[in-house]
Design goal:
Blueprint (H helix, E strand, L loop, with lengths): L2 H19 L4 H18 L8 H13 L5 H19 L5 H9 L30 H20 L5 H15 L5 H4 L12 H11 L14
Length: 218
């Protein structure tokens, strides 16, 4: 029996039980335990031999390969910090057991100098950032201006432009889901985008029982 592997397994088991007693979900616990196992595999050592440099090397390697985004890094560093807090807490006795068995004991390897701080409101990819209030107002104004411009030029498509402006406000201002908006457009599920279906539906002139096509738009 490998005493080091047995000690590490017992630590993970104890941490799982501690999290279950806090009513955490099974997936949350599983993801955190998997992170600790990956970190141990990366370092090639056990928690009583970990050092702050291991944390920096692990996350630097994953970031350099583009495997993590900022929000994921911050979350995983918090999970690693919680595990170290668990095994260094004197109430659980893991540090004393490691010191007696191996002559070494675990320490907290995550600190303010090697972990990411939550200093920005949005940490995801720039392309997925939510629009600000000013940007939304410019967006809505542009949609309204399109209606007025089409009407001023006396072109077809005024109703379609007005409908699009209303739908955009319903989705982006009121947060209505696409499945709620869909029936108002006369569409069905299965299309890639609401806008694409609406234009095809209103511009094709198709009717039930026939396949008549028309160049005009509603």
């Amino acid at each position: 029996m490998d005493p080091e592997a047995a000690m590490f397994t017992a630590m993970l088991t104890g941490w799982e039980q501690q999290q279950r007693s806090r009513l955490l979900t099974k997936k949350t616990i599983s993801d955190r335990v998997s992170l600790i196992r990956r970190f141990a595999e990366f370092t090639g050592t056990y928690p009583w031999d970990w050092a702050p440099e291991d944390v920096e090397a692990y996350f630097s390697a994953r970031l350099s390969r583009g495997e993590l985004v900022w929000s994921t890094v911050r979350g995983q560093q918090g999970d690693l910090e919680m595990f170290c807090a668990f095994i260094t807490d004197a109430r659980y006795g893991w540090a004393a057991a490691c010191s007696e068995e191996f002559g070494r004991f675990p320490v907290q390897v995550c600190h303010d100098w090697n972990t990411a701080a939550h200093v920005v409101e949005y940490e995801g990819r720039p392309g997925r950032r939510a629009l600000t209030y000013d940007e939304l107002q410019m967006f809505f104004d542009a949609a309204d201006d399109r209606v007025e411009e089409t009407r001023r030029k006396r072109r077809k498509g005024v109703l379609a432009a007005w409908r699009d402006a209303i739908l955009l406000k319903q989705v982006y201002a009121y947060g209505r889901r696409r499945c709620w908006i869909w029936p108002t457009c006369g569409g069905t599920r299965g299309r890639r985008s609401t806008g694409g279906w609406v234009r095809w539906r209103c511009g094709s002139g198709r009717r039930r029982g026939g396949a008549r096509r028309s160049g005009g738009r509603c």
